Amino acid sequence: MELSKKSIALSGAVLLVVGVVLWLVFALGASVPDDGVSNAGGASAAGAVGGRTRKHVSQRIHEKGRRHRDGVAAERRRPDLLSEFSRDEIDGLPEEFRKIFEELQAALDADDWKRTVKIVQRMQNSAEWPDGIPSALHHAAIEMLKWFGSHAAPELVGYLGSTDSEVVESATEAMLDVLGDFSLSDRDRSALLLGYIKVIRDADMLDMMMFELNNMRPTVRAETALGIWGSENDAARSVLQEGLDFFFGDADGYEVKGQEDIQRYLDDAERTYANDPDLAESDEDFYGGDKDAE
Predict the structure, then answer these.
(1) Is 30 exposed, middle or buried (0-12, 13-18, 19+ CB in 10 A)?
(2) Which of 144, 176, 208 is the last residue of a domain?
(3) H-type helices in the chain, by residue range?
(4) When comparing pLDDT for 26 and 106, which is higher?
(5) Is residue 69 part of a domain?
(6) Does the structure show a pLDDT above 90 at 224?
(7) What is the model's pLDDT at position 84?
(8) Could you list the residue range(s) of the whole structural domain that residue 158 is in?
(9) Phi/psi at 34 (nearest 5 deg)?
């Protein structure tokens, strides 16, 4: 049975292609402990965001969803490191870290995400990582990585290995902001989410991230869900299972309870688009992201 046109047209909301290099970093450059998060950039971050209740997580994801969908976050603001940290705070850093701060500022001024990523990678591969590096430098780097979006997603994951709860919180918020970036197409968002799934095992964090399934057209949502279901991440499959009614509640005449139902939903959606090219084109525009975004 086909999905109704109305249910497809009303699904989700508008939110850079994450290329092969990102997935090589995620898949080959980061080992995944059985009980935690990737140790990309250094230490394991198992359970780094644990301890939150499901109610709190639900409130957070809906709040974040509203923020992006209502357009409050539509205008991205370039971070100003020098205004976020006092001159005394910067001057008080040991010389080697003050130089790194200045390098980050220069990379930001040049709008150079590649240089930024190299600087952060150098920190994450150093003997001082993570606890030997001043907190202010961590926060400055996270702000910059967030600004550069999906280009810098793997390096944000590395910050989940910090023992500083405020650094972990900042990295978590940054990852969610990158995933919810209004300029991304739903296919870009799907690629980024599937990349995070490769390295994150914390159920609460997965809960927040998986909300973005609801911001994809039905075909992409189903394809992404099948990718999650077929992954080796048991925690992600469990979170997806819990949310099937929420993500696929518009199925026409049946309930989506597992992999076969998701495939049926995908087949129905593809058939609907094939029968209605105007709807397919409309949804492509609606979910296609901001093509003018840098």
Answers:
(1) middle
(2) 176
(3) 5-10, 20-28, 54-69, 81-84, 87-91, 95-109, 113-124, 135-147, 153-158, 165-179, 186-199, 203-210, 218-229, 234-242, 244-247, 259-275, 277-287
(4) 106
(5) yes
(6) yes
(7) 60
(8) 81-176
(9) -65, -30
